[in-house]
Design a protein that fits this description.
The complex is a heterotrimer of chains A (288), B (290) and C (112). Chain A is an alpha/beta fold. Helices cover 34% and strands 27% of the residues of chain A. The model of chain A has no long low-confidence stretch (mean pLDDT 92). With 290 residues, chain B is α/β, with parallel strands linked by helices. Helices cover 34% and strands 25% of the residues of chain B. Chain B is built from 10 helices and 11 strands. In chain B, a hairpin with a 2-residue loop joins strand 4 and strand 5. Chain B starts with a strand and ends with a helix. Chain C has one domain: Nucleotidyltransferase, domain 5 (2-Layer Sandwich), CATH 3.30.420. In chain C, 25% of the residues lie in helices and 24% in strands. Chain C contains 3 helices and 6 strands; from the N terminus they run βββαβαβαβ. Chain C starts with a strand and ends with a strand. The chains are: A alpha/beta (288), B alpha/beta (290), C alpha/beta (112). At the A-B interface, helix 3, helix 6 and helix 8 of A face helix 7 and helix 9 of B.
Chain lengths: 288, 290, 112
């Protein structure tokens, strides 16, 4: 069962929830946590395990072969992303602008731009008891998260059973990387704060999930600050509120040091149990 | 006229609350530009009137004309993004998957595919509750912020600033380290980096500062929630010293951020609190240093 | 000697454009003829990404000896310019074209 943890806005506690929930669930279940926030993967700061596998991830980019090139400018003309440029007597390729569409390569009349692999990031796979943890990290300078997210999902599909609970820590926002990270999820959990910023960004995330026709629920983090507008909104829109995590400065302090919080706060344990029950009920419902 | 850009690699550091407070303090002396269009929240505090709006087009998506299409499937063969499925014997474009690369129209023998420019959102010119002009934008689902949109917002802000002889343009910058933030920084006189003393906060600060350095822009830093973790806070201050970044101020961990926001107010207009005085000093320092 | 400047207009008293990739004009000063000419770069506005390398390509074709600009080109644009002989000077973002040229001649601009 695939569960994506997302949020409209950054800094709402998405990673805190993903790491604590997966560690908590792994006390009794087999769980895999996947950090798909490949631009800023931070889950690894909280989950330490034994590294069992590591691999480089590649994207395909054109490589200029000077001796075959007739400098006809077609490659530059077909590239909608301006990733290929012809200077007077040479072709320059900008890998970070390239979307790997193959147009320049396959349309080149003299096959002077074969597609080659270029490293875009690294995937790491860790083990910690019942918990498996997979993270992918985009290399600095690489701008496109989507291909790496797609390849990481592929890795999970080939190495883990679909029966297992799979928690995906999605990137923030509502743009393409979020859509890639959530589009195959059985359930999307949106983490928000009970504040006007939280509500505004939650609305955007909810609209995105509706557009994708996803089943989703909300977790209110830092419950107790702000106001009840988020809860009222969820009630009005018939969105299930899975849990309310209380606001506590001590949680922020533990976070700042890269520590998990649930063992230290009975109240959080209780909230995680609620989420667990929701997930298991849904999972059993699916199995029937 | 000086352009001041506020950025923070990471979300949740209080960047927008701080920028909105500066906007309030700057009053009619400034033009506000919200370039954080992925999470454009500043309007919730500054109450712009959305007086003028314009559609924004960016990026292309393929569209198949079914009258011309012979269903030969060449387009689907070349598409690397699985964006052209066949449903009921007809090829069509799944727009959420289409990258807009423009390969398929080039191989279509029937000229049945056109690339359509996408309406991805709107941008607005407003007057805020302080009377200052504000340029901002709103994006549709799946639409991405781009260098183009940021440049558009900033250009409009600059025009307004010139025509009305404003001294400052205050830009709420984009997150991350990609094209939008490059565009946010491009042309700026001074950058304010907002960070927090957490492991991830420091990590993201370093990443985004790499970019600032490349552009030769002077930078200052505000450490928010500075008492959350003294060790990381010291690490940040060492980093600032080493990189010649002005430490503008340290703000304590304070729920006034949330309380003011809940009232739809900037921190500096919210009832008596412990941060307003520091924010006033910070704004003064930013203006002097810029 | 040819000196290129990123500018918002085409005259001596036009303001410089501090941006490189999205500069509105590239103004060229011919040191021998003491004349200004220009290239209109405003079409760059329609590009979502990749403005830097595009403008750099144009500059490469214009082939000046010196470039005066504001903040300096970004990574991709700098990679293109590496292939040319042009020397880049920054810090002229708040000046007029005339002031930028004078500042350069007096050695007041920083090498990028």
């Amino acid at each position: 069962m695939k569960i994506a943890i997302a949020s409209g806005k950054g800094g709402t506690g998405k990673t805190t929830l993903a790491t604590n929930l997966s560690a908590y669930l792994s006390e009794e279940e087999k769980v895999v946590l996947i950090d798909l926030d490949v631009e800023e993967p931070n889950s690894g700061l909280f989950i330490k395990g034994d590294l069992v596998h590591k691999e480089d991830k590649y994207k395909m980019i054109p490589l200029w072969e000077q001796d075959k090139c007739t400098l006809c400018e077609l490659c530059q003309e077909v590239c909608n992303f301006h990733a290929v440029i012809q200077l007077t007597d040479q072709i320059m390729v900008f890998p970070e602008l390239c979307h790997s569409c193959y147009a320049c390569s396959e349309l080149c009349p003299t096959s002077a731009l074969p597609m080659v692999q270029q490293k875009m990031g690294e995937l790491k796979h860790f083990h910690l008891g019942n918990l498996s943890f997979v993270e992918s990290r985009l290399d600095i300078g690489q701008e496109q998260a989507v291909p790496l997210i797609a390849q990481t999902k592929k890795y999970i599909n080939t190495h883990f059973s679909g029966e297992m609970i799979q928690l995906y820590d999605a990137p923030p926002g509502t743009s393409c990387p979020v859509i890639e990270a959530t589009k195959d999820a059985d359930l999307v959990i949106l983490v928000t704060e009970p504040t006007p910023f939280g509500l505004h960004d939650l609305t955007l995330a909810v609209n995105t999930m509706k557009e994708l026709k996803k089943e989703f629920g909300v977790i209110v983090n830092r419950h107790g600050i702000g106001n009840d507008d988020v809860l009222e909104y969820c009630l009005k829109e018939h969105i299930p509120v899975l849990s309310k995590i209380p606001n506590d400065r001590r949680i922020a302090e533990l976070y700042s040091r890269g520590e998990l919080v649930y063992q230290k706060f009975p109240e959080i344990n209780k909230q995680l149990l609620k989420i667990k029950n929701y997930i298991l009920e849904m999972k059993n419902g699916k199995a029937q | 006229m000086k352009e001041i850009v506020v950025i923070s690699g990471k979300g949740g550091t209080g960047k927008t609350s701080i920028t909105a407070s500066f906007a309030y303090l700057g009053g009619k002396d400034i033009v506000v530009a919200d370039c954080d269009v992925d999470a454009a929240d500043m309007h919730l505090l500054l109450e712009p009137d959305f007086a003028k709006s314009e559609d924004f087009y960016s990026g292309f998506i393929a569209k198949i004309d079914q009258d011309k299409c012979t269903q030969c499937g060449k387009c689907a063969d070349v598409c690397r993004f699985d964006a052209i499925p066949v449903v009921d014997g007809q090829h069509w474009v799944e727009s959420l998957n289409c990258e807009g690369c423009g390969y398929c129209p080039r191989v279509c023998p029937a000229d049945a595919i056109i690339m359509e420019e996408q309406n991805v959102g709107q941008w607005y010119v407003s007057t805020t509750k302080t009377g200052s002009p504000m340029v901002h934008a709103r994006l549709g689902i799946g639409a991405e912020n781009s260098g183009k949109l940021v440049a558009r917002v900033k250009k409009e802000a600059k025009n307004i600033a010139q025509q009305n002889h404003k001294n400052f343009i205050l830009v709420d910058g984009s997150p991350g380290v990609g094209c939008p933030v490059v565009s946010s920084l491009s042309g700026a006189n001074f950058v304010v980096l907002v960070t927090e003393p957490t492991v991830s906060g420091l990590h993201d600060l370093k990443r985004v500062h790499e970019l600032v350095k490349k552009f030769n822009i002077r930078a200052g830093c505000i450490i928010n929630k500075s008492d959350l973790n003294h060790r990381v806070c010291e690490e940040i201050e060492d980093f600032l010293k080493k990189e010649n970044i002005v430490l503008i101020s340290r703000l304590p961990y304070d729920e006034t951020f949330t309380k003011a926001m809940t009232e739809g107010q900037t921190i500096v207009e919210y009832k008596k609190n412990g941060i307003t005085a520091t924010l006033k000093k910070s704004w003064k320092k930013v203006k002097q240093t810029a | 000697m040819k000196i290129a400047l990123t500018a918002k207009g085409t005259e001596w008293d036009s303001m410089m454009d501090p941006r490189f990739g999205r500069t509105e004009f590239i103004v060229i000063y011919d040191d021998e003829k003491k004349e200004l000419s220009h290239y209109d770069n405003r079409a760059i506005e329609s590009m979502a990404h990749g403005a830097g390398p595009r403008t750099a390509k144009k500059l490469f074709e214009l082939d000046p000896d010196i470039l005066l600009t504001g903040n300096g080109p970004g990574g991709n644009a700098a990679a293109v310019l590496k292939n040319s002989q042009v020397k880049v000077f920054v810090g002229a973002g708040d000046m007029t074209v005339k002031e930028a040229l004078e500042a350069y001649k007096s050695g007041l601009l920083k090498s990028f």
